[in-house]
Amino acid sequence: MAGTLAACGSSGDGQGSGDSKTVTLVSHDSWAVSKGVIAAFEKQSGYKVDVLEDGDAGQAVNKAILTKDNPQGDVFFGVDNTLLSRALDNGLFQPYEAKGSEQIKAEYRADQDKHRVTPVDTGDICVNYDKKYFADHELEPPKSFEDLVKPQYKNLLVTENASASSPGLGFLLGTAAKYGDEGWEGYWKKLKANGVKVVDGWEQAYNEEFSGSAGGKKAKGERPLVVSYASSPPAEVIFADPKPGTAPTGVAEGTCFRQVEYAGLLSGAKNTKGGKAFLDFLVSERFQEDMPLNMFVYPVREGAQVPPEFVKFGPQAADPETMDPAKIADHRDQWVKSWTSLVLK
Predict the structure, then answer these.
(1) 306: left (phi over 0), alpha (psi -120 to 50) or beta
(2) Confidence at residue 56, expressed as pLDDT on a 0 to 100 scale
(3) Are 263 and 76 in contact (CB under 8 A)?
(4) pLDDT at 10 over 50
(5) What is the mean pLDDT of residues 71-81?
(6) Integer Cα distance of 192 and 343 in angstroms
(7) DSSP states along 268-284
(8) What is the pTM of this model?
């Protein structure tokens, strides 16, 4: 997901989509896969994989739509449920039902009548908190959306711009799911009055403004609450040296919104055969089990194992906010417009 802690991709030496031996993947900047796993796909399939990273999720989707008549690649990965309707309405993908799709958990499937997208991963957008800050201030960390507007949490939260950032938009949708069409604006008025800070994207929010992350500590971040992911705490443990026994950050479980990411065969793809093989690969057990420690997301395939660090430090929220993609499609643009007027002006 845009905004994960690891973003090292693997790319081949092909000559672009016109070379039938090359598959070009277009993605956001957080695409990552183990070298051995991508090498096994290349050996088994006979295709070299080139990866074109195109900014955060929102930017990558918008650019793919603008270039759909002359696509930059064969497969696009990284459109999530908050932006799915925009991609489908603009004809970004052509139908293909990936081999192994029957193994994908039913709750993550979408567009089942046309199979234009394949679910690849899922994760929860949630407020993270800096454990040390709250211990030092003898303050209970917030647990819910409602807690965030209380006086004791004034000037503590940083979030991302909902018009430009995937987690920022997910957090907005979480509040709309929680408070409804009539109530979410009133909630944001309270949040604004309570000193919420808005920055452009996840990287700035998490690694510069947030006091609890390794990057935020170096940058002397001053906000102990940040909109990030439920999988951010295990990432803080895995990348630390030496590794701590417990995560330095926690998750306010009552603030979570479930995100699902999809991939699809681009309309106008030059190497459709290779693109289909790559989509098959994305739902394979090997890729699904490799994904968590590379992109810090959960697999969507039934039976795929998750690392023990995820189970211990970053379990999925028990009862996250969700929203039907059709409702997101109907309201997203107006909600973002209203949010921008309300919060940024």
Answers:
(1) beta
(2) 76
(3) yes
(4) no
(5) 95
(6) 6
(7) T-S-HHHHHHHHHHHTS
(8) 0.86
